[in-house]
Design a protein that fits this description.
heterodimer; A: 418 residues; alpha/beta; five-stranded mixed sheet; four-stranded parallel sheet; 17 helices; 9 strands; B: 166 residues; alpha+beta; four-stranded mixed sheet; 48% helix
C-alpha cells in the first residue's frame, strides 16, 4: 500500500499531537457529520463502505449500528480496547501512536448512534496507554472537540477511559459490558443484544478500536473510495499482526485480500533462520490451525477466503510456526490459555477447557497413552456448539485441527505403555 | 480509610459514571486501594462496598476473577513475563526460566528480600517484541519489551537500589 490509512503515524511524524493531527485533516470528518449530516446518513455511508468489524467477527459495522432500539435514550458507545487475543497487538499500536484518529472514530460513532457518552474499555495491562489516552482526551476538551454543544449544535459528547483488570473474556462484548458495570466479566445470554440492552441496560454500540479508526477516512473520502481497497465483500485496509517464527514480526497494514505468502515472505521477511514453515494460526489462538501448504499460503486473507480453507480471519493475528514446532506443544499452550481464561459461567467451557488442558499436559509430560489422543479429540468435539460464548468454541479449534493435521506430533509422545 | 487521603480522586472516578450506576466505579476504586495498601485489604473492600452501596462479597469476589487485582502482598515489584504461545515461539519460556535461576527462585515465587515476584502470564499484546514483561508496582503497570536476561537483571538491580533508597 502506498499510503497508510490506519497506521498514519508511520507516514506523519507527531500525529499523536492534536495540532499535527488537525493540520492533516483531523476532526474535519467529525465536524462535517455533526454540522451537515444526519445520524442516518452516517450509518448509510458506513454501510455503503462495507466496513466490517475488525475485532474478529467481521460483522458489518453500519448494520450493527442500525439495530439500536429506536427512540430509547440515553445510548452508549463503548470502544473495545481489551485487546487480549494471543498474537494481536494492532489496537495498541493505533492507540499509542495514532490516538486521535481512533478518538475521532469514537466521536463519529457516538454521533451516528446518538450517544452522548462513550467509554474506552482498555485492558488493565494498558495502564500507561490508558493514562496517555486520558491526556489526549483532555486536549480534545480544551479544543472544544469534546464537551457540550459541539460546533454550535445541540450535540454533546463525553469520552471516558475505563480500565479492565485482567481477563481475556472481557473482549467478548457482553462480558465487557458486565465488567464495565462493575461485575464479574462473564458473557450474557443473548438476546437481548447490546443494541437493545447494553451498558446499564440501554441501547449500546460496542466496536473494536481498529473498526472505529476506519471511520474518519470513510467519512472524509467516501464509501466509493473505501471500496477501492480490499475485496468486494471485505473492503478496506486491515492491520495484520504478524508474530512467531518470522524474520520481522510486527504490524502490517495491507488491503484485505492480501495473501498469507505476501504477508509472511514479502513483509515479514520469511521464516527465521531460513527454516521451512509448518503451520499458521490465522486468528491468534482462536481459530483452526492451518498446515502451511502452497494452497494455504496463496489464500487471500479476507473474511470469505480464510473460512473457505477451514479457518477464520478473526482479528488477523497471524502466528507463524516453523518446522521445529511440536504441534502437540502448541495445542498444550493454547489449551493452557483457554483453561486460564474460561470465565467459569457455562459448564461445557469450564469443564472442557479444564480437561483439554490436563490431557494435553499429560501428553507433554510423556504420561499419556495412545487413547488419550482420542480422549482429547472427543472432549473437544463434546463441547463443540454447546458453549455460552465463543471462548469455548475457540478453545477446541486448535485441538481438533492440531490432531487432524499433525497427529504424528501427538503420537511421538504416547508410546504403548503396557 | 481511602477517603481520608484520596477524596478528590474518588470523586473524579465517580463522576465518570451515571449517579445511579455507581457500581461501575468498583474496578477503579479497587486499583486505588491496591496502590494505596499494596494489596486489596478487607477493610478496603468494606469501605468500597459502603461507598457504592454494594455487599462486600460483590466487591471482594472481583479480586479472585481479575488477574491484576491481588488480595495478598507478594513482592514489591511483580515481573510478569508473557509466556503465551507467540512469545514462547520467540524464546520467552527459556528467558523466564533463566531470569528465575538468576534470582534463585521458581516461576511464581518471590525473592527472599520480598522485592521481586516473577510470574508467567498470558498474552500482553507485545508479541512482536518478545521476550517482554510487564512490571507491576504500587503506582501502575509498565511494559518492558525486547528484553534479554542481562537487561532484565539490570532492571532488577535498579529496583533493588530504588528499594534500598526508600
Amino acid at each position: 500500500m502506498t499510503e497508510y490509512i490506519l497506521l498514519r503515524h508511520r507516514d506523519i511524524e507527531g500525529i499523536d499531537q492534536l495540532e499535527v493531527y488537525r493540520k492533516n485533516g483531523g476532526y474535519e470528518a467529525f465536524e462535517q457529520v455533526v454540522k451537515k449530516q444526519t445520524p442516518q446518513q452516517v450509518i448509510d455511508e458506513v454501510k455503503a463502505a462495507g466496513l466490517r468489524g475488525r475485532g474478529g467477527a467481521g460483522f458489518p459495522t453500519g448494520v450493527k449500528w442500525s439495530f439500536l432500539t429506536p427512540d430509547v435514550y440515553p445510548r452508549y458507545v463503548v470502544a473495545n480496547a481489551d485487546e487480549s487475543e494471543p498474537g494481536t497487538f494492532k489496537d495498541r499500536e493505533i492507540m499509542e501512536h495514532n490516538p486521535y484518529q481512533f478518538l475521532e472514530g469514537v466521536a463519529i460513532c457516538a454521533y451516528a448512534a446518538q450517544a452522548n457518552v462513550a467509554y474506552v474499555y482498555c485492558r488493565g495491562e494498558f495502564w500507561d496507554l490508558a493514562h496517555r489516552l486520558e491526556t489526549k482526551i483532555e486536549a480534545l476538551y480544551e479544543a472544544k472537540l469534546l464537551g457540550k454543544k459541539l460546533f454550535g449544535t445541540d450535540f454533546s459528547l463525553d469520552i471516558y477511559v475505563h480500565l479492565g483488570a485482567g481477563a481475556y473474556i472481557c473482549g467478548e462484548e457482553t462480558a465487557l459490558l458486565e465488567s464495565l458495570e462493575g461485575k464479574l466479566g462473564q458473557p450474557r445470554l443473548r438476546p437481548p443484544f447490546p443494541a437493545a440492552e447494553g451498558l446499564f441496560a440501554k441501547p449500546t454500540v460496542v466496536n473494536n478500536v481498529e473498526t472505529l479508526t476506519n471511520l474518519p477516512p470513510i467519512i472524509t473520502r467516501g464509501a466509493d473510495w473505501y471500496r477501492t481497497i480490499g475485496t468486494e465483500k471485505s473492503p478496506g485496509p486491515k492491520v495484520f499482526s504478524l508474530s512467531g517464527h518470522v524474520e520481522r514480526p510486527g504490524n502490517y497494514e495491507l488491503p484485505l485480500g492480501s495473501t498469507f505468502r505476501e504477508l509472511i515472505y514479502e513483509h515479514g521477511g520469511g521464516i527465521r533462520g531460513g527454516r521451512r514453515i509448518k503451520g499458521i494460526m490465522p486468528a491468534g489462538a482462536s481459530a483452526p490451525l492451518l498446515a502451511a501448504t502452497d494452497e494455504v499460503l496463496d489464500t487471500p486473507m479476507d473474511y470469505e477466503s480464510v473460512p473457505a480453507i477451514g479457518s477464520q480471519l478473526g482479528s488477523a493475528s497471524i502466528i507463524v510456526m516453523d518446522e521445529s514446532v511440536d504441534i502437540s506443544w502448541m495445542v498444550y499452550k493454547t489449551s493452557s490459555f483457554f483453561k486460564h481464561e474460561s470465565c467459569g459461567k457455562c459448564t461445557p467451557c469450564r469443564e472442557g477447557t479444564y480437561w483439554m488442558y490436563h490431557v494435553t499436559k499429560r501428553i507433554q509430560e510423556g504420561n499419556a497413552s495412545p487413547e488419550d489422543i482420542e480422549l482429547l479429540d472427543s472432549v473437544a468435539r463434546g463441547i463443540q456448539g454447546k458453549c455460552l460464548c465463543a471462548l469455548g468454541e475457540f478453545a477446541l479449534m486448535p485441538v481438533i485441527s492440531g490432531i487432524e493435521h499433525f497427529r504424528a506430533d501427538f503420537q511421538t509422545h504416547t508410546g504403548d505403555r503396557t | 480509610m481511602l477517603a481520608d487521603n484520596h477524596q478528590a480522586e474518588i470523586e473524579r472516578i465517580l463522576s465518570k459514571y451515571p449517579p445511579d450506576q455507581k457500581r461501575a466505579a468498583v474496578l477503579p476504586l479497587l486499583y486505588l486501594a491496591q496502590h494505596t495498601y499494596g494489596c486489596i485489604t478487607e477493610d478496603a473492600i468494606d469501605e468500597i462496598a459502603a461507598l457504592l452501596e454494594l455487599d462486600p462479597t460483590q466487591v471482594g469476589g472481583l479480586t479472585g476473577f481479575y488477574t491484576l487485582l491481588h488480595d495478598k502482598q507478594e513482592g514489591k515489584y511483580r515481573i510478569q513475563i508473557c509466556t503465551d504461545l507467540p512469545c514462547a515461539l520467540r524464546g520467552a519460556e527459556a528467558f523466564a526460566k533463566e531470569v528465575c535461576t538468576n534470582l534463585g527462585i521458581q516461576l511464581g515465587e518471590t525473592t527472599d528480600d520480598g522485592l521481586v515476584t516473577v510470574e508467567g502470564v498470558m498474552c500482553l499484546a507485545g508479541c512482536d517484541k518478545a521476550p517482554m514483561f510487564q512490571l507491576q508496582d504500587d503506582e501502575g503497570i509498565h511494559y518492558h519489551e525486547n528484553q534479554d536476561v542481562s537487561s532484565t537483571m539490570g532492571l532488577i538491580e535498579e529496583l533493588r537500589q530504588r528499594g534500598s533508597d526508600d
